[in-house]
Specification:
Elements: H1 4-15, E1 20-25, E2 38-44, H2 56-69, E3 91-97, E4 103-109, E5 112-118, E6 122-124, E7 127-129, H3 133-146
Antiparallel strand pairs: 1-2, 3-4, 4-5, 6-7
Helix pairs in contact: 1-2
């Protein structure tokens, strides 16, 4: 649970770093705030969070995490020292090609399988090729730092196995 008051405090702390935070309200007149209850929070300009709109509860969790491990904005920002632990050499890629134009890949980190994705196979230079190993390593690095809400993958640096 998170109260609107606690969320406002977190939002102000993040805004103080230079991040842009957009808050949408539901317009419910029974709320203490005349705008209503907070419906979603969107953060931009803060590495380690955003840019998609989040529910108030998820936003509070992410803001707490980012504020706990470090704050950054702009190109040179760091989420915190924990992100320096990512090692691209530990990324494993297992490709599954069903046909010339269809395929998937399973990614792992440090020997632990994470998730399976559809490959983006396109005609390049006269042949059909999928994502490069460096593109896939970039996906794993983002999972390592931020996780993936849609696919229900926690940030990998939070897992005790690493």
């Amino acid at each position: 649970m998170v109260s609107d008051n606690e969320l406002y405090v977190l939002i102000e702390r993040v805004r103080a770093t230079g991040a842009v935070v957009n808050v949408t309200y539901d317009g419910d007149s029974t709320a203490r705030d005349p705008r209503g209850f907070i419906r979603s929070v969107q953060v931009a300009g803060l590495r380690g969070i955003g840019p998609c709109a989040m529910s108030p509860l998820y936003a509070a969790e992410r803001l707490r995490e980012v504020l706990a491990v470090g704050i950054g904005s702009g190109e040179d920002a760091q989420v915190g020292p924990v992100c320096a632990l990512f090692d691209a050499a530990k990324v494993g890629i297992e490709r599954h090609r069903f046909s010339t134009t269809q395929g998937e890949f399973t990614v792992s980190y440090n020997g632990s399988k994470i998730i399976r994705y559809g490959d983006d196979i396109r005609m390049r230079g006269g042949e059909f090729v999928g994502l490069s190993d460096s593109d896939i390593a970039g996906i794993v690095e983002r999972l390592f730092k931020y996780g993936c809400v849609y696919n229900k993958v926690e940030p990998l640096h939070l897992k005790a196995a690493l």
